[in-house]
């Protein structure tokens, strides 16, 4: 699925992705109780809130990983919540990128193989995948460790590798769940600076879950979630 998401139309354009009035419980535990969030092309939206407030659950619903019990997630012409499993999985592979708290790199593969992996899985040839991976490794400043394995690199290098991997297939939306949560502040700032620069220069929309105000400050907008309900939208405090 390809969306027209020119950066020139960021301000007024339809959101690229919009979840509205999402509800989801895990057994007796309500995780989302009326959560809404939209993100536009080239925009970074931070989801903040205390532990257990529903941030990750909201991200997972927006990304089509979890199905809400009610509410909609619009992506282009689709309601993701109405798509069959197979189509939602395909959409995640082709249109979305993911960065998690612990990079979740494949330990047996080198940095450049990890970055190229989404392209290889999508059937892109070896040479072309390496070429495109090299571009993103340079952009995320991990070229010097291209032939290292995840066990041989620092946490910050690992997260920058994970960001390069999330971006390598030119996703429309990147979902980042506490991408700096396991890093010291300097390494975290480097990851966030690079991620927000890339989003700013491109049409990539970023949904960023964080409990750290310093990380949320990199976003264009902040959505606060409390007890499963999104509270208000605000400019992040810088
Ligand atoms: N798989 C699950 N099974 C049962 N309960 C869950 C599950 N995932 C989340 N929950 C519950 O749903 C609520 C919201 O959890 P969620 O992980 O979305 O919060 P969060 O804001 O991301 O928290 P944190 O900042 O601690 O990661 C919590 O009460 C949590 O215990």
Automatic annotation (TrEMBL):
PROSITE patterns referenced in this protein's UniProt entry, alphabetically: ABC_TRANSPORTER_2 (PS50893)
Keywords on record: ATP-binding, Nucleotide-binding, Transport
Membrane-spanning parts: none
Presence of keyword Transferase: no
Molecular function GO labels: ATP binding; ATP hydrolysis activity; transmembrane transporter activity
Family matches, as Pfam families: ABC_tran
InterPro entries: AAA+_ATPase (IPR003593), ABC_transporter-like_ATP-bd (IPR003439), ABC_transpr_LolD-like (IPR015854), MacB-like_ATP-bd (IPR017911), P-loop_NTPase (IPR027417)
KW Nucleotide-binding (keyword) present: yes
Superkingdom of origin organism: Bacteria
GO cellular component: plasma membrane
Domain (ABC transporter) ranges: 17-237
PANTHER family: ABC TRANSPORTER RELATED, IMPORT ATP-BINDING PROTEIN
Protein name from the UniProt record: Putative ABC transport system ATP-binding protein
Species: Halopolyspora algeriensis
């Amino acid at each position: 699925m390809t969306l027209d998401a020119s950066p020139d139309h960021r301000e007024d354009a339809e959101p690229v992705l919009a979840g509205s009035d999402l509800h989801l419980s895990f057994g007796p535990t309500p995780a989302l109780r009326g959560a809404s969030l939209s993100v536009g092309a080239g925009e970074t939206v931070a989801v903040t809130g205390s532990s257990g407030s529903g941030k990750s659950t909201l991200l997972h619903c927006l990304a089509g990983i979890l199905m809400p019990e009610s509410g909609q997630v619009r992506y282009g012409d689709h309601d993701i919540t109405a798509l069959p499993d197979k189509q939602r999985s395909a959409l995640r592979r082709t249109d979305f990128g993911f960065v998690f708290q612990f990079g979740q790199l494949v330990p047996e593969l080198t940095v450049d193989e990890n970055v190229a992996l989404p392209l290889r899985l999508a059937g892109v040839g070896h040479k072309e995948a390496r070429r495109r991976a090299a571009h993103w490794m340079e952009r995320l400043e991990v070229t010097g460790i291209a032939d290292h394995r995840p066990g041989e690199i620092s946490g910050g290098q690992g997260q920058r590798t994970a960001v390069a991997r999330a971006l390598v297939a030119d996703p429309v939306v990147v979902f980042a769940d506490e991408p700096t949560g396991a890093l010291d502040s300097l390494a975290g700032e480097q990851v966030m600076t690079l991620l927000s620069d890339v989003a700013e220069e491109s049409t990539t929309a970023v949904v960023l879950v964080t409990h750290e105000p310093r990380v949320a400050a990199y976003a264009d907008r902040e959505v606060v979630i409390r007890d499963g309900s999104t509270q208000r939208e605000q400019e992040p405090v810088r």
